[in-house]
Every structure is written in structure tokens, then in C-alpha cells.
């Protein structure tokens, strides 16, 4: 999906919601466990119930890998289902990969060719040759971790660079943005540090940001929009557990929709 | 495998060789492609031909993931085979994972429980709560990226900390070492920067180091031993392509053994 197609979907749906499919088999409703593929059955119902409210879906690969080859099959069915929806959605493999060049190319193949995701999240620690391979695929995106939503973000991401006084996440933004373009790179900026978004926007005014941490992790949507929105909207705000595990009853999909709708209504107000 | 057991194997085999099973299906000998699982068939022959010379094996997960569920099955067969060798070997899932706490726990389950590896490589960028979940499994190890062997290492890992003038990889060593112990943490230090090993040993004199970059990437074994070895040996030196793709003929396993043997002979001389 191109940047313009994503913006069009955001304007059409009046939503910049990304739903995180962190489908932990131990947390899904018990009645699904008799299905042939409980995880896919869960995802399918969540997607069906929310696809008019969300512009993006983000399976976190950890929850699939922990089930081995079987989990990988659930992921494959999920991305295939997402790629065949009537209204296109932006798809994110939240995989946080990154390795030396020839190896990153293999990861890019895994997510862009074998699975056909639009984008992959990428860890920047190993530098340019670990990120660039993800930028060599036409129409695909690398979403680079810059400022994450967790407490551990304070361990390294705020280290001040002796040379220019920038924080590490700022150097990551400044350095990596030159490796690609606004058409094939986004950045992860956690909602739990929303006040930092103004600072982030000084470095990358036009890039899309993937913003996790709203909901279960405590970030505020209004703050994120206030400091992070640009004229293209420029935001994909993710909620995972707060939506998909809203209920574990028979009506889990309906309850997920209710939570997604609450966010979409707020988002519609924030979209100019 | 415990630290003492690893040291015992090193002394017994007079080797600190780790063989990287970066099994790219496009590079394996053509005659294997008619096998039911060509990647596992390749790995099995490589392992059989080298197991008396190597103390560790390190499949890089990218080469398996790029083949989807099928690749995951090859990885499962490979780790099962490694875990049933007569002389135990240390096993490393070179996966470079790292995510927020509940998600890292899923990755740890994937590699320590579903697949039963001894260790996983972990990216430090997201900080403590992304690394700690890998340290909660009895007898298992996290191998943290500190100073990698690729060119991109210079993009961020050498950034000087304004507070104490340490380079980022040094701060990563100093900070993360307190999260675990010498019994459940190792660090990745690239052989291509062997002269930095003396500096690394100031921060972590006793930890084991996983050292990639000897061979295809150009690092020198003598330099690595000179600056990195400690009284426990304290090194696992990895070679991947230089061994496993030494030949793509019918005799590939024999040729792989020859390359492994060259390194093992050098290593035997370096072990006091």
C-alpha cells in the first residue's frame, strides 16, 4: 500500500486505528479452542467485527512463533484474510527484526514475499545494512523502532550523544531517515511518551508514525494527536489487548468492536 | 547447558567453534533438493560431519522463517537432532529478538520451550523489560548484541555517551550485565572489531562472548583469542558460510569438515 492509499483509507474511514493482533492462545475465549485453528478463528472474527473502523492490522509475530509451525500457519491465514478484504487495510508484521545484510534480506523475504505483509517493524541497533534490505522491496515499508512505549525505553534510547547533545532516539531518527523515504519508512514512537512527539516531529515532520501504547499501556490518544498529527494525519495509533481481549465470552468480537468504535469516534473528531 | 558444562565440552573437544547453520535453500547442493526436507537433510549431514569439532551450533532463524511454516519444521527437526547428539552441544537460536515484556516472554517460550534451544540472541535497544524475560528460564541463556560484526555497527554502537564518555556498546555491556549473571548471559562481539575485545573485557572479564565474523566476514581467530580469551576460554567463535558452503558438490559435508578442522586445529593451539 502506498502512502497516498493509506491516507485515502484514513480519510474514508475517519480513523487512524491499527489493531494489534497479539493473539495469545491462552487468552482467547475457551469456546474457540475446539476450532481447527483457534487463533485464526479468533482473528477472523475480530477482523470482521472491526474492519470498517481500523485502517491497519498488526499481528505481533511472537504470539505466533511461540506455537511453532502451527502458529506460522495461523499467521499465514491471517495475512491472507487481511489481504482479501473488500476495503484494503495496511498490514504490519510486528517482528522487530534486524540482522547483517544477507540475513535481513531473508527476513524481508519472509514477511514481504512468503507472507505478503505491507510492512515490518525493524530494530535499528545494527545500523544501516541491517535496515536497508527491508527498503529494497517495491511498495513495502520498514517501520523503525525509535522511541518505544515500554519502561525499558529509558535504558538506552535517551542516552545523550556527546557530539551533538541529541538523545539516541533522535540520532536514530536523523540517521535512518536518510536511508529511505517518506514512502517506505515509518517510525515507532510510543504513546506513553506523547510529549516527546513534538520533539520527534522536528526531526521527521512528514513521516508516518506507528504509535503503540494507547490503552493497556496507558497512553492518551488526545496527547498523541496534539503533538504528533501532521497534514496527512501521519499517525497509526495501535491498540492490542484493550480491543481484542475486551471480553472472553461468546460476544468477544462484539465487545472488541465496541472498544474499537470508542477509539474511532475519538479519532474522527481529531481528524480535521 | 550450564557454563561449567560448556567449559568442559570446550576442554574435551579442544575447540570453541560454533557453526552457524545459515542454511539458505538456494545455496545448498542441488542433489539435496529431492529430499523430503532438503534443509534438514543438509543440516544433518553438516552436523554429523562436524560434531566432534564444534561445541556449539547456531541456526539463524531468518533462513528458516523465509520458508514459512515449512522452514519452521526444518528448524524444529534441526534442534531436535542437535539435542540428541551423543556429546552434548550448546545450541543458539540466532534470532535477535526483543520486544515489550509480555511479548518477549512469548519469544522466550518459542525458543526455549517450543524448540528447546539453550540460548537466544537478543537485541538490546528496547531495554531491560525486553531482555529480562529471556533470563527467567532455568538453564537457558540470553546472548545480547553489544558490538556486531557488520559495517552498520558504526552507525549507533560507537555513539559516545555525554555523561561518562562511554561508547553505546560499552553502556549496553555495563547496563545489561546487571540484569543477569555469568551463568545466563553472553554477549555478541564481532570478530571484525577484535581490537575492541580488550576494551570489552574491561567491562565483562568473565562472561562468555559469541564472536561472529571470522571467515567470510574477515575477522582473525588469533586476534580474537589474544584480546578476548579468559581463564574459562570464554569464547564461542562462529563461522557460518565459510564452513557450511565450502563446497556445493556431493562432498559438501566432507569439505565442511575440512574447514571446521582447520579452525579446530588453530583453536587447540590457542587453548592453554
Task: Summarize the topology.
The structure is a homodimer of 272-residue chains.
Chain A: H1 3-13, E1 17-21, H2 38-50, E2 56-59, H3 62-65, H4 68-82, E3 90-97, H5 101-114, E4 119-122, H6 128-131, E5 141-147, H7 153-156, H8 168-176, E6 185-189, H9 197-203, E7 208-211, H10 221-228, E8 235-239, H11 241-244, H12 252-270
Helix pairs in contact in A: 2-4, 2-12
* Global geometry of chain A: globular
Largest sheet of chain A: 8 strands, parallel, barrel
Poorly predicted regions of chain A are none
**What is the CATH H-level superfamily of chain A?**
Aldolase class I
Write down the CATH class of chain A.
Answer: Alpha Beta
Task: Looking at this protein, list some descriptive labels.
8 strands; 272 residues; TIM Barrel; 12 helices; homodimer; alpha/beta; eight-stranded parallel β-barrel; 41% helix
Description:
Two copies of one chain form a homodimer. An eight-stranded parallel β-barrel of chain A has the order 1-2-3-4-5-6-7-8, surrounded by five helices. In chain A, strand 4, helix 6 and strand 5 (141-147) form a beta-alpha-beta unit. Chain A is of the alpha/beta class and 272 residues long. Helix content of chain A is 41%, strand content 15%. Chain A has a single domain (3-270), classed as Alpha-Beta Barrel (TIM Barrel). Chain A is built from twelve helices and eight strands.
Task: Provide a brief overview of the structure.
The structure is a homodimer of 272-residue chains. Chain A is an alpha/beta fold and 272 residues long.
Amino acid at each position: 500500500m502506498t502512502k497516498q492509499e493509506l491516507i485515502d483509507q484514513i480519510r474514508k474511514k475517519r480513523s487512524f486505528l491499527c489493531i494489534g493482533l497479539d493473539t495469545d492462545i491462552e487468552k482467547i475465549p475457551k469456546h474457540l479452542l475446539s476450532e481447527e485453528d483457534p487463533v485464526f478463528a479468533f482473528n477472523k472474527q475480530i477482523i470482521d467485527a472491526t474492519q470498517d473502523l481500523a485502517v491497519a492490522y498488526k499481528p505481533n509475530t511472537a504470539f505466533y512463533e511461540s506455537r511453532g509451525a502451527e502458529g506460522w500457519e495461523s499467521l499465514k491465514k491471517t495475512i491472507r484474510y487481511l489481504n482479501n478484504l473488500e476495503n484494503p487495510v495496511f498490514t504490519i508484521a510486528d517482528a522487530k527484526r534486524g540482522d547483517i545484510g544477507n540475513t535481513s534480506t531473508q527476513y524481508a523475504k519472509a514477511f514481504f514475499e512468503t507472507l505478503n505483509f505491507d510492512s515490518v517493524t525493524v530494530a535499528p541497533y545494527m545500523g544501516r545494512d541491517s535496515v536497508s534490505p527491508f527498503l529494497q522491496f517495491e511498495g513495502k515499508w520498514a517501520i523503525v523502532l525509535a522511541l518505544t512505549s515500554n519502561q525499558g525505553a529509558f535504558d538506552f534510547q535517551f542516552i545523550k550523544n556527546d557530539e551533538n547533545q541529541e538523545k539516541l532516539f533522535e540520532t536514530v531518527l536523523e540517521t535512518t531517515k536518510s536511508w529511505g523515504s517518506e514512502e517506505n519508512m515509518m517510525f515507532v514512537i510510543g504513546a506513553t511518551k506523547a510529549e516527546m512527539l513534538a520533539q520527534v516531529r522536528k526531526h521527521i515532520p512528514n513521516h508516518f508514525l506507528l504509535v503503540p501504547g494507547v490503552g493497556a499501556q496507558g497512553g492518551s490518544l488526545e496527547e498523541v494527536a496534539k503533538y504528533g498529527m501532521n497534514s496527512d494525519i501521519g499517525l497509526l495509533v495501535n491498540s492490542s489487548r484493550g480491543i481484542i481481549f475486551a471480553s472472553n465470552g461468546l460476544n468477544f468480537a462484539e465487545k472488541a468492536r465496541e472498544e474499537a468504535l470508542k477509539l474511532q469516534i475519538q479519532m474522527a473528531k481529531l481528524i480535521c
